[in-house]
User: Fold these one by one.
Assistant:
Number 1:
Amino acid sequence: MARTSVNAKDVADLAGVSRAAVSRSFTPGASVSAETRAKVFQAAETLGYQVNHLARGLIRSETGLVALIAAEINTPYRSNMLAALTARLQEAGKVALLINTDRSDASVERALRQAISYRTDAAVVMSGMPARSLAETCLRNGMRLVLINRDEERPGSIRIQLDDAEAGRQAFATLVAAGCKRLALATSQAGTPSLAGREEGFKAAASEAGVDLTVAALGMTSYQTGLDLGTQLMARPDRPDGVFCTTDLLACGVLDAARHRFGFQVPHELSVIGFDDIEEARWESYALTTFAQPVEGIADAAVDWLKHAEDPKESATTVSLPARMIWRGTVRPFRNHD
Amino acid sequence: MARTSVNAKDVADLAGVSRAAVSRSFTPGASVSAETRAKVFQAAETLGYQVNHLARGLIRSETGLVALIAAEINTPYRSNMLAALTARLQEAGKVALLINTDRSDASVERALRQAISYRTDAAVVMSGMPARSLAETCLRNGMRLVLINRDEERPGSIRIQLDDAEAGRQAFATLVAAGCKRLALATSQAGTPSLAGREEGFKAAASEAGVDLTVAALGMTSYQTGLDLGTQLMARPDRPDGVFCTTDLLACGVLDAARHRFGFQVPHELSVIGFDDIEEARWESYALTTFAQPVEGIADAAVDWLKHAEDPKESATTVSLPARMIWRGTVRPFRNHD
DNA sequence: CTGAAAGCGCTTACAG
DNA sequence: CTGAAAGCGCTTACAG
């Protein structure tokens, strides 16, 4: 194979030092004189030398690579999460390997095997769930696992999640306090742990309060589904006047259906609460009252753990973060909130 | 360093073959008997062996890594581009290294040096522009460069771009045909090549037709800027009745300002055209008439080139794709369109 | 088809 | 502080 790029030997020759000296110069804290380092940097500069991280990764226990595994990465919430994670990772001197899955467990496993192939220091799983045996293979390879909004743990991993059920309860209480009489839950059939948590919290609060709920669940978690959900809900004889949507995308669809297809006034005739606090929730056409996912907080927790955790061991950690309610314009005003 | 994972030697021992045989078994088309390969796969399976791509990349001329370099990756258009690129890359057996920049040339250069460190097969640049000298360093390292919507070429690279100016001209013609009398151009101050192209096309068409234009340019390319732009434009005594926004995000803001802050009817009193065809443009609150960026086409062109191009040479290629107009509801209907 | 050997570019004890 | 040497896990001529 043709030698393709300048290597440490070239730099060593030009600087008149050994290969080891070159290596040390690029290793923070290594024992090398300031003079030698200066000569090396000088030579590296003129030759355009960059340490080969592939070779370095072969020897050190770290490659600096972290796999980000997610489905539907162009969705507003997901791309926010990805952007925050990538930024934090870069600040910590790591680089993100982005692997797009289709949310099936098979494709998550494929992604994880890829990650192992590249000996990533860690993998952040945002969609699907790796089998326990595969998680153990990762662990054995010294790879850390970060599970975001997943419903199970895996040995040696950190699980970061929101208190989705609590948010669901709060959504119920809020709609009741706003004076809504006919409550509905609008959700997708994706069946992710996050969605399930929100649904359960909302339902549990309703059942405890002894109020009946209309539950509508359709297709995937998208704006289009929201539109369908809204259309279906608003056409009912006992049309709901308060809807908790498990996602902002769904909520935007529900709002558009209610307003444009039925001409209902929000929040006068209909109150809507979403979840995620995506950019679009702030847009004037929506001004959606919703719950903010602490995206930055999740990214911080993940990267801090990667930086500080000692060798991964069998025990798993779970971190639970609260979702904070953001008051905007889609819930009828009432006294005493907050 | 502690041996961290199972390697080819382990598999060879278990299968009773040489390391070379293991290597060949995992190389499509290598000369190895079906029998040997079967034994190897069997052993690899029980040991949970994954070829180490870092070591492989050290030897082969390809690492399978492709760097994706972009700013504001959580923006709708950008995340669509990223998703398409990542998907195509995965189909081609590559994996994406995602590097988030702040659009300054310095941070693009930092990103490119990272890419060199990991010996990526290619780098796809979507923001900023690498200096010619750095581009040459990439080329020397056998790294291909894909420039998306950039205004210059670089030796040995492919540049993929849209005919932005033509779209700008078409936007002008469309607004005129719709009967708009007071035309405006609404854009940001980001000054990217794409924006500049659209602005120039629109302005050139106006000047050729001898019509005066109101030009408004503010801040960054965001919904908020669109809101400001719309507010500013609608407050003018000679309020425009036809606005070309260089981006959908801007257009959504302009629409919301016009409708919610001034109560104008779209398209009756105001026609608006955007650019990008992001998801939100399809939402019922907007139903924006816009130009579709051929995101899939761009991703295809990039990955095809990476797959088929022989060794990068000095010559650069430019591919220009058309932006297709998508008729929706924000331009006043008129005869003879299309 | 198969294996022993050389080599990719690095880092890190080891000895000085 | 410094260099020679061993070794990380792989692939690929080379010879059989």
Number 2:
Amino acid sequence: MTHHLLRWEATLWAAGHRVTRQRALILDAVCAGEGHTSLGEVFARVRRVDRTIDRSTVYRALRLFVELGLVLTADTGGGELRYEITKPHPHHHLVCRGCGREQEIGADALRAMTDHVSRQHGFRVATDHLVLFGLCAACSRQMP
Amino acid sequence: MTHHLLRWEATLWAAGHRVTRQRALILDAVCAGEGHTSLGEVFARVRRVDRTIDRSTVYRALRLFVELGLVLTADTGGGELRYEITKPHPHHHLVCRGCGREQEIGADALRAMTDHVSRQHGFRVATDHLVLFGLCAACSRQMP
DNA sequence: GTTGATGCAAATCATTTGCATATTC
DNA sequence: GAATATGCAAATGATTTGCATCAAC
């Protein structure tokens, strides 16, 4: 279990929400996925444990988790949003258009760029979870 | 008319497609929008000229234009894709979460970042039309 | 016992598709 | 005239919502 049981329960609690079995299962399922997980994957994973859980419950739980900052969303452009457990270190992602694999990069990689934009345009970039597409090293070698 | 009549007709033609009245209207409508235009806006604009045109025709035409590189898509996260006529100079966009206004920034602004990612991770970033969210100078002043 | 959460079914919203007809070349 | 586009209507796929029942506190 990647998430800290106590923290998410306390967070829910503080916001006037209840700690339920299904919410626990759903959060576990998000953690179980490495990197971004689609709602469908979360749903399937949860369903394996509890056959009666409904898609709408998963949607509602994920929306709540995002609202409370426990989970981050990323739009990887494939029609459905993807979810990821919030990690202590802010980061971004590189998604390879060739093999589909994704890798994390630290927030530092973008710092210089956002600083530049801030200085030049007075615009404060607030994208805390960016997804960049391209070709990874391996795929790049195959198709130059 | 921002687009060059001859170029898009030739492009269509070369790819074995036909030049139709509705495609011309749709491309005009995309040009008429400053920055990104939603499909709904394009549709509404075209409808003002031709009351019989169908949404599916707009979807089909836009898909074709994107495929041929005449139009670019951007996912601004609001549920619907947005479209923009392809301009000679590659660029990206800053969208303000406060007032919704968007501004263009040159591709150079990201160059340093993509170079860095390339050197560090061997990953070739291929996002040619990125949308960054944040707060513009004016909104930034109002809510610090 | 209240209040908030869940399951179910039906609704919504953006986008796609099948098909008969109309248009371009 | 042959091949491609269009309009229409119906299908799809992701996400949301209304509501009666159920579980957490």
Number 3:
Amino acid sequence: MVDTPQSGMEQAILLAAERLFLERGLALTSTTDIAKEVGCNQALIHYYFRTKDKLFETIFARKAELLFSDLDSGGAAGASFEAMLRSLVEAHFELLRANPRLPFLVINELVTNPSRIDSLKLRLGGRVSKTYERLETALKAEIAEGRVRPMSVFDLLFDAVSLNVAVFLGGPILKAALDLSQDDYERLVEARKREIVEMLLRGLRPDGARPEGEDGSR
Amino acid sequence: MVDTPQSGMEQAILLAAERLFLERGLALTSTTDIAKEVGCNQALIHYYFRTKDKLFETIFARKAELLFSDLDSGGAAGASFEAMLRSLVEAHFELLRANPRLPFLVINELVTNPSRIDSLKLRLGGRVSKTYERLETALKAEIAEGRVRPMSVFDLLFDAVSLNVAVFLGGPILKAALDLSQDDYERLVEARKREIVEMLLRGLRPDGARPEGEDGSR
DNA sequence: GTCCTATTTAATAAGTCTATTATAACTATT
DNA sequence: AATAGTTATAATAGACTTATTAAATAGGAC
């Protein structure tokens, strides 16, 4: 939103750099690699972005923002908690499916260079909390009604994000290890999506809950 | 088991290298760094291991083996499925707690250098399948008895590993982002352990299952 | 066409990294 | 104590890296 218009070359560099950073990470990508990918002189990278790190920061900030984006989609007014959670988790899953290397890039970079965590915190500060609070209200209500076992939003989100992210972190490794075809792999991903929602929703049920009918509590 | 006895210096290099590789990954660790850490000449690294990559391979193989180790602990003869699964998941969790940087190292390395996947496959080939098959038999029996919803072992293991691994991949980032003290962080990890087991076990329950009593099916 | 500015390139400085080589310092054996 | 073998170091080659600089090229205004 705050982006200034960019020249074609600047765009080309950003795109190529993004591709390479996502594929191999910051450390294993040289400005020479990027220039080769773009088909331009290596000095041009520095002409537009001064340093490799500034270039990375630009890309990283945008991508990380995407990863922690609000995901407000779910929850048309009267929707049930289950529907809202389902749509939230599925939206998150789809976000990752569209950007499968993002978790790798972010984790890799935040682990090897923790100082970037702070700058991210500043940038994303309140963003996450919105979804968090919306979910918290809804979850507390469900628990009070006995439709969900007592648990924290923190754990619920941790569970959901863990399950979703792991698909795209481990997926490529599993694909290679099991010699899956691209088709088979995509089927696996799709199957995981269903299983994750299933596991999460069942995992929320209180003791002795019925599957779909009216609540037995109270 | 096949290890030859090692000199003190060789051991010292292995330990220092392991520490650094776990902390920053292969790419960001130089042989000079390792030598500095050990307090020896840089050439000595090469004297013992010829190349940086061979040194890494040695460490990586050992550590990855650990990560995929059998985890046979669980399941004393007559134990219930629930008890067996619980002890399996907890053992896996404890393995990770004792080696918290391992998932980062392995994922980082397998993603940036997929050719290592093949060599791992050879090395670990049958290892995993043992636990897998034991679990498969037990799970199928449970499903047949109606005590567990229909699902694959693959998904069950994927769920469990996802939840466990994510704690140690995301934990350090969360710790920094939320400014947690070491104590608070350890409490968070412990809480996650309980929640993960809870979520998994509830997630397995078939529709309309009762919490602990005798099964209502059939 | 000429001038001015923005873009692009070639050349290269300065540094790091891996790996090798030749030499020195130990250790043990006789 | 002399010798042989092992372990350690200093020095350095050679390949990369990032970043800068100065020169070349392109495009628009006049």
Number 4:
Amino acid sequence: MTQLAKYVKEMRKQFGLTQVDLSQKSGVGLRFVRELEQGKTTLRLDKVNQVLAMFGAEMTPAKITEV
Amino acid sequence: MTQLAKYVKEMRKQFGLTQVDLSQKSGVGLRFVRELEQGKTTLRLDKVNQVLAMFGAEMTPAKITEV
DNA sequence: CATGAATATCCCCTAAAGGGTATAATCCAC
DNA sequence: GTGGATTATACCCTTTAGGGGATATTCATG
């Protein structure tokens, strides 16, 4: 499970949304939300950010914080 | 110019690499490196991380830090 | 100025991302 | 247990990301 997947899953719960809610509000497909939460790595960056925007977040480059 | 684009450009300079060097060392295409440094937003996350790994970095979700 | 290196732009092609939808599997509360 | 909601898997289809390569263009440096 990737860090991103965990992040989205948790934030979604915190916001009290279902996957369907999130996909509709963010404007990405339901399938995308699922693949995102399941840790698919080949996702498109803009779509990921589109979802993260719902939580006031975004993807940013950062030094790898060890294990 | 996106934050990511700036980050890569700067790190690449710091490491004394050309775009060609970086593309070869990271294993992505030269065109990808260019689009990355030019702020294309529809890049694939795994490829971006593949490049960032050269600098010991990765993409992570984070609260949007204002303007 | 000339010359070469680095970067940018354009074309073609293939693999696959992402949307939709339908069906299964889980997870509740009752 | 049953029923409804939520999540997971699987399929088809269209669009496009990304690779390679060719051709500008820009930027150094002598």
